Amino acid sequence: MMKYLKETTHYLQEKGFKNPEIGIILGTGLGQLLEQVDIIHEVSYNHIPHFPTATVEFHKGKLIYGKIEGKTAVIMQGRFHLYEGYDLLDVTFPVRIMKRLGVKKLLVSNAAGAINLNFKKGDLMLIDDHINLLGGSPLAYKGVSKLGNIFVDMSCPYDKSMSDSLIEIANKQNINLHQGVYASVLGPQLETRAEYRYLKTIGADAVGMSTVPEVIVANHLQLPVVAVSVLTDECDPDNLEPVNVEDILATAQQAEPKMVKLFCELLKQI
User: Fold this and answer.
1) Pairing between strand 71-77 and 225-234?
2) pTM of this structure
3) Of 23, 40, 41, 159, which is the most buried if we count CB atoms within 10 A?
């Protein structure tokens, strides 16, 4: 792992990825933030040594370096998932690279289904806490202790200062920003009616297939992180309709400008 981290970091530094302040992970169907970025360098994932490659057709696969709201940022245009056949070390490898490049804060987005039926399709949810249902941890591997203390405190995994700022920004911008608990599941199939009932019972407000591994590793690295879900469908087990991926992606794109506004305003403040 250490050898891979050093080689990948060196490669990106040679490509001009120098001293970034901010790391950003863009979730499924979420790429409009890049319209606000003055792109300086970009590299396809499949050209980066030891980097996984996005395998799902609607997931982009580029690492981007540029300026946004006066900050230098490294942006993942597309992330990796366990359901693509990767393991938790693969999925979280980019977060470790961002930290080694110099990133001081991490902003994460995802597309998720609304379990809380008070939340509607197209709304945003600030993740206040999460439930890990992936069946593993990115810290439960031999040798990871060489990268830091593996017994990471998760009593407050999402940075309170950045979260409070997003709430304040949402209020000022008249953006409806819910707060809730995100459950991360393996996928790639969506949930059954019984599974949606189970998720509601255990306290989830939204469900998706990402984010939690990256957040665990960010906490391992003592990298402050904040995350926002774009709610792309309503998961009502009593009125469940067949999944339509095209509709999910369209909803993400329609709702995304609100998330872009939140992130841009936050970047002005941090």
Assistant:
1) unpaired
2) 0.94
3) 23
